[in-house]
Amino acid sequence: MSRSYAGLTYEEAVRAYAQNVTSACMMRLQNWADAEDCFQNTFLKLYRLSPEFNDREHLKAWLLRVAINECKNLLRTRSRNLPLDSAEKLASPSKEDESDISWALMRLEPKFREVVYLHYCEQYKVAEIADILSLNENTVKTLLHRGRKRLKSIYGGDGR
Length: 160
Known about the structure:
By secondary structure, this protein is mostly helical. The chain has 2 domains: 1-81, Rna Polymerase Sigma Factor, Chain: A; 91-160, Arc Repressor Mutant, subunit A (Orthogonal Bundle). It contains 8 helices and no strands. Helix 1 (10-29) runs antiparallel to helix 2.
């Protein structure tokens, strides 16, 4: 019997949400190998647990929550950070990347990066981000506000 995930087969779910999960992992970890590990663990949990989903948006939110938790677990167990010189290389825009905001997102602290990424790139509302990250809505609003200010100072602008 074939499993269904909000009307999608497992393969369709992986194809549909691979980019979302990969981006969330890269924003958090800034390391491709670690992001791949968390990506695989996320979809492995989907396959093993086979939870019921109300719709595709519920599936996407569940995958992002699991991916972010996988990233947090990886960082906690390895207790290591990306060296500053590596982060600076990742965060330095090339000429073709100057219009792409992802290099600026990579320079934000993870707590701001996750919230800003989920709000602007994944188009989640504050309440949904609070649910995904297990945070209070006011905390999400504060992180968004501070993240925007930091992003503006990194990306360009006077920081006001």
